[in-house]
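Page 37, top half.
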Amino acid sequence: MSQTIHLGISTCPNDTFAFHGLLAGKVDTCGLDFKIELTDVQDLNERLAQGHFDVAKGSFHAAFLLSDHLGVLPSGSALGYGVGPVVLATEPVELPAEPRDDEPDPTPTPRVLCPGRFTTATLLWQLFHGRLAHPSQALFSEIMPALKAGDTDLGVCIHEGRFTYADWGLVLVEDLGASWEARTSMPLPLGGILARRSLADDVLRRIQACVRASIDYGLSHRDETLKTMRRHAQEMDDEVLWSHVGLYVNEWTRELGPDGRRALSFLSAMGRSRGLVPEVQAPLEVLV
């Protein structure tokens, strides 16, 4: 009898591209019965914390906070160069430098929207501008409309926001990914496929094999994946879909590798140094 695996992924094109093979029944499931659910990244993060999934795409910020119970699989991650969240506004703004510990917090405080408290976008804002403003949270798709409506001063945008903000009449204030790269010269880790550490080693190996096979299937059958991506991102045109895939599906998606693992450890260490990841939290383990 096959073992049921509750798998959660986001509706973002990079995930629906990578998991098209599994969604369409095109790859061997190694005796596993995948029940796949697609939802927003912050919903995935929160439900991972509640134990709703066996395996799910989650932000690395969430992974650092849940590392006692979850590890990351070697395949399926989103990280790279030029992939970071972008800080947007309706008109040019220069963010003040982060004050020293002996300096007062800057005033006035701008209103800032981030795409979920456990997202890596929020972690990066807190690392680089945490004393400038404590962010409020919104669904990622609501941030650019909130900027246009004047409901926030700054928006930390992810996913297709990187490609479409100019169409909204918005301007780039800061590329947080570029800020990360300037400080570290490393690829930026955004999110990965997180799995329960309590799953048997054999089950984890089979899940990893399925994830890798699905990614490879998508890379070998690109045109076939388009229908799946469109189904979950109907507001995006094909050019934006493929730009998204081209940016977020790369060598580190197939395998984290040494560079990906180093970058992940460095981001975790930065979070710990600023008190954003508890010192008592176990290090995030790459499973399998």
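Page 37, bottom half:
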Amino acid sequence: MPDMSPLSTTSPCQLARRSGTAIWRQIEETLAADILAGARTGRLPNETELAAHFGVNRHTVRQAAKALADRGLVEVVHGRGTFVREGMIAYELGRRSRLAHSLAKARRIGVSQLTGQRDNVAESDVAEMLELPPDSRVTRIDTLDRVDERVVGVCTQYFPLPRFAGLAEVYQQLGKTHLALAHFGVTDFQRKLSRISAMLPTREMAQLLGQAVTQPILRVETVYVDADGIPIEYGISHFDSGAVQLVVEP
């Protein structure tokens, strides 16, 4: 979802300062009304902008934000800001579905950001998942899955070489794995394996997901095969368990 409309810093919102209702409570109710009406979505302006808009100090804004969070209307993500809470993302682990399909079905805005790429000899576990002989080479891409502007997934994917040589460049242009695979002629694929587990994140993983290291994350290992049953992708995804729920189709 897009950010809420910019707030004016030259025309502060008029609050009833002698109404008997605390100023922070009035700010909370004003923002809550807009959120419930669908007028404010995505990331809220920062404390400084809100304080200027309402003509109050940042502490007052912080009280209002905490009250909104207590009501479940917003979520404060450490280091990233305050976000209007949307419904959980239902990621359907179907035979031919990917996260992009689940987001489109739910009319959520998702973007995958390529953060790294390299070609190298496959480690033994990767080669096993892709059914490759020892010393085979693969291309690895690392991505961040963003939904409504926040990171909900950290992913690493492996593709066999030379079949998918140059895939990272194609992915950078198209932004979706299924579109990149289609560029290489793979339009019919299916999920062969999904292995799901829960774990505590590393400090680096928690920082990427904007969460505490004490909050569990979901780990999903996936193998996709083409129409001939040949493995084309092995992926490892780590999801924010507070934002994503996994739906396993029979």
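Margin note: The beta strands are 74-77, 81-84, 89-93, 110-121, 137-147, 150-160, 189-199, 217-226, 231-240, 244-248.
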